[in-house]
Write a structure and sequence with these properties.
about 220 residues; Glycerol-3-phosphate (1)-acyltransferase; 8 helices; globular
Length: about 220
């Protein structure tokens, strides 16, 4: 973590614990070093910092590429390892930057649902995360955030002091799909992307909010 990232990381940790009674389970399942994709459900604008602040390493976030044009905002985004993506949230250039970041041993957070839920329920995944996972060699760690919709979901105008809990799952590898993708047909490749996305979303859905031990890295 650079100085700005660490300052924001420490500040958010204090705020989240006091205001949201924040709890984190099994964060040690995310490797401390090396490439990793963190796949999370998405219910609030606060989900990226909820995830990033729960881990003892810097992670990269996706941000609209037009935001990088503004001097101060652009500098902040680059300093906190943000990845520029187009208005639709992807694109060839965005994918290349993500894969390069992973190739350099970085960690990146992706939201399989693509956008925030409107009712607090999990949404079907988009196949885009499947494409990213298959084209990389990084493990995928699912995480489910409980309470962020109630705290600051779409209907909420200002963050409310509701408890937020994060629960990390076991790393997922996808070696079989990655091997098959090297030589399969285009039609089958699209199926692999969708099946990968579905497996990740299913792993997120299986996570339960409580465990005997709370872990703060």
């Amino acid at each position: 973590m650079n100085a700005l990232y660490r300052f924001a990381w420490l500040s958010f940790r204090v705020f989240f614990r006091l205001y949201f009674r924040w709890r984190v389970y099994n964060a040690e399942r995310v490797p401390r070093e090396g490439a990793v994709i963190i796949a999370s459900n998405h219910a609030s604008y606060l989900d990226p910092p909820f995830v990033g602040t729960s881990l003892p390493r810097g992670i990269s976030y996706l941000a609209r590429e037009n935001l990088f044009k503004y001097p101060v905002i652009g500098w902040i985004l680059r300093t906190v390892y943000a990845v520029p993506v187009d208005r639709e949230g992807g694109g060839a250039q965005g994918l290349k930057v993500i894969l390069d970041r992973l190739l350099d041993g970085g960690a990146i957070i992706l939201f399989p649902e693509g956008t925030r839920t409107r009712d607090g329920k999990l949404q079907p995944p988009r196949s885009g995360i499947g494409l990213t996972v298959i084209k990389s060699t990084a493990p995928v760690v699912p995480v489910r955030i409980f309470g962020s919709f109630e705290a600051y979901g779409r209907p909420v105008k200002f963050p409310r002091p509701r408890q937020v809990v994060l629960k990390y799952g076991m790393p997922m590898r996808f070696e079989k799909f990655r091997a098959e993708a090297k030589s399969c047909s285009s039609a089958r490749l699209k199926e692999i992307y969708k099946e990968t996305a579905d497996e990740i979303m299913a792993a997120i859905a299986k996570l339960e909010p409580c465990e005997d031990k709370t872990i703060f890295p």
